[in-house]
Design brief:
homotrimer; mainly beta; six-stranded antiparallel sheet; 4 helices; 23 strands
Chain lengths: 356, 356, 356
Amino acid sequence: MSSSSVPLFHTLISARHNVHVGSFHLTSRDAAPACPMPWSVRLTPLRGGRQQGVDLLELAAGDMSIRLVPTRGMGILDVTCGDLRLGWDSPVKEVVHPAFIDLGGRGGTAWLEGFNEYMVRCGLEWFGPPGPEEHHLATAEPPANPLTLHGKIANIPASELWIEVETKKPFRLRVHGKVYEVMQYGPKFELATTLTVTPGEARFTMEDRITNLAGQEQEFGLLYHINHGPPLLEPGSRFVGPVKNVTPRDEESKRGLAKYAQYGPPRAGSLEQAFFLELHGDRRGQTRVMLHNKAGDRGVALGWSLKALPCLTIWKGLHAKEDGYVTGLEPATGYPNPRPAERQAGRVPTLKPGQT
Amino acid sequence: MSSSSVPLFHTLISARHNVHVGSFHLTSRDAAPACPMPWSVRLTPLRGGRQQGVDLLELAAGDMSIRLVPTRGMGILDVTCGDLRLGWDSPVKEVVHPAFIDLGGRGGTAWLEGFNEYMVRCGLEWFGPPGPEEHHLATAEPPANPLTLHGKIANIPASELWIEVETKKPFRLRVHGKVYEVMQYGPKFELATTLTVTPGEARFTMEDRITNLAGQEQEFGLLYHINHGPPLLEPGSRFVGPVKNVTPRDEESKRGLAKYAQYGPPRAGSLEQAFFLELHGDRRGQTRVMLHNKAGDRGVALGWSLKALPCLTIWKGLHAKEDGYVTGLEPATGYPNPRPAERQAGRVPTLKPGQT
Amino acid sequence: MSSSSVPLFHTLISARHNVHVGSFHLTSRDAAPACPMPWSVRLTPLRGGRQQGVDLLELAAGDMSIRLVPTRGMGILDVTCGDLRLGWDSPVKEVVHPAFIDLGGRGGTAWLEGFNEYMVRCGLEWFGPPGPEEHHLATAEPPANPLTLHGKIANIPASELWIEVETKKPFRLRVHGKVYEVMQYGPKFELATTLTVTPGEARFTMEDRITNLAGQEQEFGLLYHINHGPPLLEPGSRFVGPVKNVTPRDEESKRGLAKYAQYGPPRAGSLEQAFFLELHGDRRGQTRVMLHNKAGDRGVALGWSLKALPCLTIWKGLHAKEDGYVTGLEPATGYPNPRPAERQAGRVPTLKPGQT
């Protein structure tokens, strides 16, 4: 009996087929016994407080563990690699269910009531600060549409979630998800995301495809809000990257411009700073940046295509530990300015009907 | 042993008695074995994406099948009659749970994030476009209350849901529901709805009763947003009715006035049009309109009382198929104008305390 | 075998440990067999309408029964003592799940869509009417943050819920809960509440502790909205208390100033009145007020510390029975005015980091 070369698929959630498996647990012992590096996948329903009803998906392979949140737009809660944790200590301790968040609340900033992920997508219709915007209704008199902080995608539960298991070398594990941001007289986006892990490697890749399901061209925006706290973030930590130029977002950021790539200690009451970067890429348009600790012996590297995500924002929230001591490295299609300004700067891309 | 003449009742949901049966399945074989035309009733919990937690109730009798959504104010998702489907292809594919919709979002148009029913009620406190309105607070200084698109009733889950089975001729099946739109210093409405099917007949009736539970007179509004897509809607389809007069809603609609009763093909980027109609009724105040396809060999007829619903709006959304190619026939207590304008026109009726 | 002096603990909900027991039932017979006065604790999931998913916790001891709502910020739905019920008949009959309420809706008054408790907390970041307020974002340009009626805490489910049982005299029963109102760039409050009942006594105590989890000083506000309807409220009922002075809230309240401590009959269409009181306390700062019926043979007494809650508001909503015939006695840190006015009056207290 030979092990099949066809990967195994397990459907965990499917709105299309009215499936939600509830809990789920699969190990390499059962699914890929030939795999020398043990792995496991576990779907757990969360309970209590504002996390009641949230699904958490945990992939563990070797000494790396990744926790995904299908209920919050397929964000990554955190990544643990040996004793290194990628993530941050948000004041929000629970994984908050979208039903408890009214994105329009708090002047359009209620998105922050659920914000605690290592990686959270901002978009897909827009990202950036709350503010006014003409809404593209198919009527002669469009009403004002107040944009809310960082858009909606992080507060939409995945409609489809399945895993893919290779039973032969390199024994890759994949998590696939689909999230829909759709309405009549509004956006019609499908986000199809695949996270791939090769057991034994201390890295993962994430591939997202956005499809415009509409019959018309549609503006979109996507920002990956990737947030680091201790231990990678500490006084003396540094950002390293092939920087072409740096623009501070505002007056407060100007004050920190000279030291934008260095990190100071937590400081209660300090204001956030943000820097807009252009980066150099290689011949294929790939770039790579790094955040490392003071000693320079631990770090994380992020690589992506500048063709898809030409802009990088560094967000420095060096607040008191209790208020969130954090820095975001945020590759995106644009910068988190008000959308009308981004549009004027030519940084609001569009997708044609059916285009991906 | 004689079959009883007393109908059977099955409670599926009752907030009053703290009941929710979860899943439910009943067939004529078990409940009305004497019925020559087999029928079934099935309550299914939906799963995945934004439909997690929604209940779907399906009635099948002969070759007709009706899908109701108790969780969304007892709307009708679609009706299938042989190979004819009544409904439309909204960009919203899931049956969206109200918890995921903040009606005030998107400038008060977030109602559209869940809009995909064949028949959805708009009301009960108001319907029509979003906009400002003085709120009837029992205080000296009422704050502004921004009205949201088409009101709240479609996003309130039914508090009571039960079915009624006749075990003797004509073996009628009834679905009863109650939905409450209530708050202190606000509306206090009970919607009691009954859908009746006689197995073997290709028709159904829906009877709604609205009761003002308040101690004061209360304005209300009710519009039945009945939406048709293909196959009934196609280039060459026609609306037919005893029309007294037609008023276009806006400039864009004026352009389509001459052909308001005819339907063209889907057109990407086209604007919606709306026409406000007065209809003739018979001596009892009953009226009837029809939508039929190009060949005129398939159609749907809607009949209602002009005393209760004197106004009809035709909504033409002849957008690209992907954006919703649809027409709504919308009998109502008024027209979907801003409520202050409707009030001035005398089209906002009131209910006295306890009045139905 | 001697009964232990160590109290027993039962965890019912814990977000920290991912626990939700679902249903729960415990009686003195099982847990404290030596207790001469039988008691029971029951956790029940509510079903149907807008109460789907709400947990109700009922404590019964002797002839007193208290119903708590962990899902709505640990409010008290009602208290029954023999044939006396503390509570009121709100137009809202269901115990509404927070997911169905968008607090920003209805001009910021949608809090009323779920308002039906005997005791509901208002706060913790603010309480009072909806209105504009500068938001304390850690940015140079804070957006406007529209405050919503009575704040958020009543619409946040408890993250932790456990009961504590004394197995020896005095056999006290305690319910502990924790509710978190937290976000980055916003409040970071922990509400830890303990309700204590001694079986056989017709009284209960509630002790709340608010901790500022932030790294910065933080304004807060807490108002206990304690609402009485029939039978305690009837024409001729009276408020009694050690009143220092009374200020009517507005013109309508001025009209009722002379009779602020007396209650008239329900009157359809009447406006609410509110009175702001200062009270005398004893040497330890404790005060006590009472509401009794016309005959003066039945009443409720409320006692609290003026150091923590120096302000008392009497709210008179003598509306038609169907609209809520109710009076609120509302001890608080301030009065329910717009927060900027309260701040100017020095009635918005603050908590230092870690302060309780």
